[in-house]
Amino acid sequence: MAEIEFDPAKSFLDRWDSAADSEKAIQGLADWICKYTYLEDDKFSFHEHEYQIQIANDTHARMNVMKASQVGMTELSARIVLAYVATHSNRRALYGLPTTTFAQSFSKDRIALVIENSPKLREMVASKNDTVLQKIIGTSILYLQGLSGRTAGFSLPLFLLVVDEVDICDQDILSRANSRLRHAPLDQTGQWRGLRRYFGTPSVLDYGIHHQIKLSDQHHYLVKCEHCNTVQAPTTHDFVIPGFEKDFSEFDIADVYDPLIDLDSAYMACQHCKKPIDNSLKDPERRQWVPAKQEQGLERGYSVAPWDLPVYNTTQSILKQRADYKTKAEYYNQILGLPYEDADNSFILSVFDRVNKSQWLDPNSPTSGRYFIGVDVGKIFHVVVIKPTSRDDCEVVYATTLTPYTENGEVKTNAMQVVELAKKLHARGTVIDAGPDFTSASYVTSKLMRSFASE
Question: How far apart (Å, rounded) are the C-alpha atoms in residues 449 and 95?
């Protein structure tokens, strides 16, 4: 787990005051988003999502957001890119996701819905030229694209590059996408061309979005304790769990079900007075984004923790969700929004870093071959496709992660996506975890003749 380190040159209180002054001067997109976009039948609001306002308004040329899942950042990122394209003339923007399937799903489930529910955007969209992966809005164009495989080339110059789920994008193609900004105008500092926005749930230390955050000014959403007015950056070490006396790093699935551990009475404690700060976390007047580093020339960085959306992510729910994740790495990445490295996931990452991902097959138009699929089951499915190269060896030709999505009103479960992939590839065999979710294994083995569930 990555620790928070603040430069001791300034006290937390000094940083709090200076951050509050600078925030007043920021002018950005939050007002436009609230004025012209809707969520269901109501105008979009940052109520109970106040941490998002500064991120939406940030005008820095290079912004990186490391986030937990289910904190509303995907919803916000869709609105940020649409607001930008709608308020600027003659601009090209690219919203990149790990795969073309991801991009198509995001366009239908997020982008299209925001446009459909916004009279302002609807009147700006050139419907004759509107496609799933290209939106002409006013005189500007928004492209959506998968950043993996051999088909991920993009040759047009850009002014804005937004990338979601940085860690599971092809890092080589990501670098090439960045090069499309080099013809954009320089920012006011003369340091960067164009605008780039990276969003992502972390995986392992010093990789992907966590690597970008380490190079940034590292903003954290501080809280001022209602009892003693101490300003602090909460961490998992501040969890107080009655009946659990060990360090939080040892908190595991079994502890969720231990009758001697009272999760319903758990809370986050002030680092100074040790009283509960759960109510302070919910008070936007007691919250403030503050950078850990203040040197000039750094990229902007925001680390969004689950307790930054405290009305929805209570201390109790954060802890109880440990039971939903088979591995500690998944729990740390998805729920806590923190990188986590152990022998298993660091080895897997090192293997895939050595693979030439630009030569991966395109699942939508595969070449002929003898393909075999392996599926690791969890809240997120990890899928690997291999191709034998001899009797004793094979090569990885594709890898991805799967999460459920909705298409034309139908929920596409992870298991359904595995079956679709296997059929597209005419896979010779598919092996899937029998647990922890046996229903997925049952579905896959019932739909595919050459499939096996493994303990």
Answer: 38
